[in-house]
């Protein structure tokens, strides 16, 4: 698919078909996320694949009871790894670069999913400690939860800010 067409096709989907996500597609999504650029090529992030219903229920509870998470066959939980980035970049690596790394990787995963005929929604509303607990980690910072599956809805595109309102020329 043409890249700009892919971007236009991406929508936040919160209703999922019960169809399983094929392992080959999951592998391609993981490959895409791992290909994302990162500060110093440190890839200061970790991704947890949540498939079990019990864990998805715990994740939904940690994400302010966003129960549609449970219906998604897979949830990818992206964590920043502050220690991995701070070793090279100090405070800025610990507080910013690792977050950027995880965010870019999640974006690549999201776009790869859409390219493969799947859907996602970016979730950032959650209790950090509870999400980390669900995934069994302590020293990582959760950045995004991406439920992944086949769509059971096709919402209308939401309006975007005009390009002229977002971009500003300097100099």
The CATH homologous superfamily is called: NADH Oxidase
- At CATH level 2, the architecture is 3-Layer(aba) Sandwich
What's the overall geometry?
A: globular
Percentage beta strand? 5-15%
What's the count of strands?
Answer: 4
CATH class descriptor name: Alpha Beta
How large is the count of helical segments? 7
**What does the largest sheet look like?**
4 strands, antiparallel
> What's the structural domain tally?
1
The order of strands across the largest sheet is: 1-2-4-3
CATH topology-level name = NADH Oxidase
What does this structure look like?
There is one protein chain. With 171 residues, the protein is an alpha+beta fold. The protein has one domain (3-155): NADH Oxidase (3-Layer(aba) Sandwich), CATH 3.40.109. It has helices at 3-9, 23-34, 53-62, 68-71, 82-115, 128-135, 163-166, and strands at 45-50, 74-80, 119-120, 141-149. A four-stranded antiparallel β-sheet has the order 1-2-4-3, sandwiched between helices. Helix 2 (23-34) crosses helix 5 (82-115) and helix 3 (53-62) runs antiparallel to helix 6 (128-135). The protein is globular.
Task: Break the fold down into its secondary structure elements and pairings.
Layout lengths: L2 H7 L13 H12 L10 E6 L2 H10 L5 H4 L2 E7 L1 H34 L3 E2 L7 H8 L5 E9 L13 H4 L5
Antiparallel strand pairs: 1-2, 2-4, 3-4
Helix pairs in contact: 2-5, 3-6
């Amino acid at each position: 698919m043409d890249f700009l067409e892919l971007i236009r096709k991406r929508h936040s989907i919160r209703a999922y078909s019960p169809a399983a996500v094929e392992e080959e597609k999951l592998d391609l999504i993981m490959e895409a996320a791992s290909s994302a650029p990162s500060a110093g090529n440190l890839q200061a992030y970790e991704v947890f694949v949540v498939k079990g219903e019990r864990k998805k229920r715990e994740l939904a509870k940690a994400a302010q009871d966003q129960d549609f998470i449970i219906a998604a066959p897979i949830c990818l939980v992206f964590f920043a790894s502050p220690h991995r980035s701070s070793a090279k970049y100090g405070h800025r690596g610990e507080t910013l670069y690792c977050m950027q790394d995880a965010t870019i990787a999640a974006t690549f995963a999201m776009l790869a999913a859409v390219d493969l005929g799947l859907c996602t929604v970016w979730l950032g509303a959650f209790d950090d400690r509870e999400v980390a607990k669900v995934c069994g980690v302590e020293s990582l910072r959760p950045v995004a939860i991406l439920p992944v599956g086949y769509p059971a809805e096709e919402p209308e595109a939401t309006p975007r800010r005009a390009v002229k309102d977002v971009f500003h020329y300097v100099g």
